[in-house]
Amino acid sequence: MKTCEIHCGxxxxxxxxxxxxxxxxxxxxxxxxxLRDYGKQEQIGLEKSFDEYLDKILxxxxxxxxxxxxxxxxxxxxxxxxGAGNRKTGVEDxxxxxxxxxxxxxxxxxxxxxxxQPHRLAIRMIDEQGWILRNEIIxxxxxxxxxxxxxxxxxxFETILFFTKxxxxxxxxQKEALANPNRKNFASGxxxxxxxxxxxxxxxxxxxxxxxxxxxxxKRSVWKISTKAFxxxxxxxxx
Length: 239
What we know:
Pfam families: N6_N4_Mtase (PF01555). One of its GO terms (molecular function) is N-methyltransferase activity. This is site-specific DNA-methyltransferase (cytosine-N(4)-specific). This protein is of the alpha/beta class. It has two domains: 11-174 and 219-224, 3-Layer(aba) Sandwich (Rossmann fold); 179-208, no CATH class. It is 21% helix and 19% strand. The chain has five helices and nine strands; from the N terminus they run αβαβαβββαββαββ. It has helices at 11-15, 50-67, 117-129, 180-187, 202-208; strands spanning 23-28, 68-78, 132-140, 157-164, 175-176, 190-191, 200-201, 217-218, 222-224. It starts with 10 loop residues before the first helix and ends in a 15-residue tail after the last strand. 20% of the residues are buried.
């Protein structure tokens, strides 16, 4: 049994070679719109319009759904960018903290506006292809590259979308440490507000004492993962 096999080429074309429902887990990240020119005629990301870009991505996601097993999962990492209006560059700057390469393409009608790339794509995947979105995960990058913007905040995260094709799928819950003081505070009850603001919700406190977390709590959906240095000409390597 092969442990690693690399196929180089157009994703939509290569995926057609795989049989239906043959892959259990897919982890991927597409080229983001308007950020980089790879010098290839059929590349994704430099389409004349944002809608055309989404159409091309959806061709790939349709094939991904076909090859994914009923119990399989898709983990889709997708950063965002800002429209550049009438300027020559494709975006104001990249939210993915990747090195930007100027292009002649731009998102029409989105001057300085956050494009919401992952969210627009997710809605179409759900509406048009029947994907089930289980989580929107925030990949927080503590060591993100500085941005020279003056009229908004520096963005230090990317989005990871957790999709399935079936309501029942294979999933192993991940745990993270939970300090004892938090459990004690949770069990002490919540103070209510409004006309009952002087009353503690002791019922919640009593019921919470029945819960224990010997292995930690369920993993949250904000993942703090630093990026790693890479000496080669690749600005989108996984950590």
